[in-house]
Each structure stands twice: as C-alpha cells, then as structure tokens.
TrEMBL record:
Name of a matching Pfam family: Acetyltransf_CG
Family: Belongs to the NATD1 family.
Name used for this protein in its record: Protein NATD1
PANTHER family linked to this entry: PROTEIN NATD1
Domain named N-acetyltransferase: residues: 36-125
Amino acid sequence: MFTARSICRLVSFQQIRQLNVTGGMASSKKNDLEVNHSLDRQEFFIELDPPDRGVLDYDLLSDGTVDMHHTGVPTSYRGRGIAGQLAKAAFSHFTSERTKMLLTCTYLQKYYKDHPDASPPDLITLPS
C-alpha cells in the first residue's frame, strides 16, 4: 500500500535519486522539467507553463497492482520527450517498489515494447 510517508524513487536519465516525500508528493528534475508523483491523486506529472501539465495517471487495484491507464501531454509540448520522462519515472518507481503494473495506456505499451529494460517482465501485464 502506498502512503504519503513512502520514500519514492524516480530515475533521471543519468542516475537514480532517492527523493523526499512531502504531503504525498515526490519530485525529480531533468533538464529543468520536474517529474512529480502525487500518491493522493495517483499520478505522475510535470508542471509546464500554467495551466499546462503532462500527466501519467494510474489506479491502485485491490490486488496491489497498478493500472497505468493514461498518459497525456498538451499538443503544443508533444515531441519533447515529456511523456517518456513520465513513463520512465513511473516504471522506475513501481519497479523499485516491486509493484505489478497493468499497462492499459497504449503509449505505455509502446514505451515498454521500445524499452523492455524499463521493468522486469514479471512485473508487467499487457491487456489481452
């Protein structure tokens, strides 16, 4: 079970960093973009120019698996690797927690196909 006191681990492209959690949120910076994780809202997000933000939403299922069901980046920010940063952070976090992931978001399915080292196969379930 995730709590606001959990220590979250997110991966930057250069290194793994341990992050502080304050009020249920954790963050990691890369190229002036900050990947945040809200345990309360069950999302990873990057604040862009207000009110824009990139998001990766998930639901915690009753068996402890997370259903990673949506990744979204505003049209004007697409092609900059923002969705990839969100995906990398989410896969890293859930892998470090040994949490099983159900990938119902088509972007995340493609990301995992292109980056099979993002998480061990025993933690990944693709919809049939």
